[in-house]
Amino acid sequence: MPMKTMPFQSGSSYNIISAPRRVKELPQTLQPRERFRLEGADRVGEDVLLAILLRSGIPGVNVLDLARRILERYGTLTQLAQASVEELAAFKGVGPVKAQMLKAALELARRIALEGAVERPALTCPDDVIRLLGETARTLDREVFWVLLLDTRNRLLRPPDEVSRGLLNASLVHPREVFRGAVRAAAAAVIVAHNHPSGDPTPSAEDLSITRQLVEAGRIVGIPVLDHVIVGRKADSAPGHFSVRESGLVTFEAT
């Protein structure tokens, strides 16, 4: 006796032939805003970022599909950025308002890139660090600890990250805080630095202990610590800063 087959019923939750058309019909973890919240801006794809800017699709095309169509049409973000507002507005599903929003976001990205193209100093010795931080560090009345993120050519990736402010100790300068920004920025190496408000840059036992802890953490995460520079005040017989690396008091990762 032949088996009786059950036809798919209209509207059945088991009907997998037709894929969800609206973003709200997708599993929550696949929706652009939820993915952005869970994964972070730096981990989601360009289609998700673009979909968040677009906010909505059109009948029959959800916002993710619309974002992917735009990316396929232009091929690269550079080419998309070069499109005029009028050209973007003519793309089906975009229109003048979304075109302006896209163009504004892309223009901000362009200006950020220009800021990044400004001279990024290479930090190859303690004197370079002092030129970057010295004037600021010497005027502070409390200890501040900075992390300098470097690329593969030892050029500064961005302005120094301030990790802690106050009396320096291992609980304030935790490797997690020091390397969080370095990992996110894909830094090739870091230099750490802090000031001594007393003016004497001689490292304390705590300074050296923190340095060893950070050097070891850098080995583990694959982002070497190149030096720990302590900033004091200039004196007739002293340079006003101290390089832990040059002193030989701590063994650093080979450069």
Describe this structure in words.
The longest helix has 23 residues, at 95-117. Helix 1 packs across helix 2 (46-54), helix 2 packs across helix 3 and helix 8 crosses helix 9. The protein folds into two domains: 23-117, DNA polymerase, domain 1; 126-247, Cytidine Deaminase, domain 2 (3-Layer(aba) Sandwich), CATH 3.40.140.10. The termini are far apart. By secondary structure, the protein is α+β, with helices and mostly antiparallel strands. Helix 9 links the parallel strand 3 (189-195) and strand 4 (225-231). Helix content is 42%, strand content 11%. It has helices at residues 32-39, 46-54, 63-74, 77-82, 85-89, 95-117, 126-137, 175-184, 205-221, 244-247; strands at residues 144-150, 161-165, 189-195, 225-231, 241-243. The protein is elongated. The protein has a five-stranded mixed beta sheet with strand order 2-1-3-4-5, with helices on both faces.
Secondary-structure content class? alpha+beta
Strand order of the largest sheet: 2-1-3-4-5
* Main pleated-sheet profile: 5 strands, mixed
Secondary structure: helix percent: 40-55%
Radius of gyration: 27 Å
Topology pattern, helix = H, strand = E: HHHHHHHEEHEHEEH
Number of domains: 2
**How far apart are the first and last residues' alpha carbons, in Å?**
78 Å
Mean pLDDT, rounded to whole units?
82
The CATH architecture of the largest domain can be named as 3-Layer(aba) Sandwich
Question: What is the gist of this entry?
Answer:
The chain is α+β, with helices and mostly antiparallel strands. It has helices at residues 32-39, 46-54, 63-74, 77-82, 85-89, 95-117, 126-137, 175-184, 205-221, 244-247, and strands at residues 144-150, 161-165, 189-195, 225-231, 241-243.
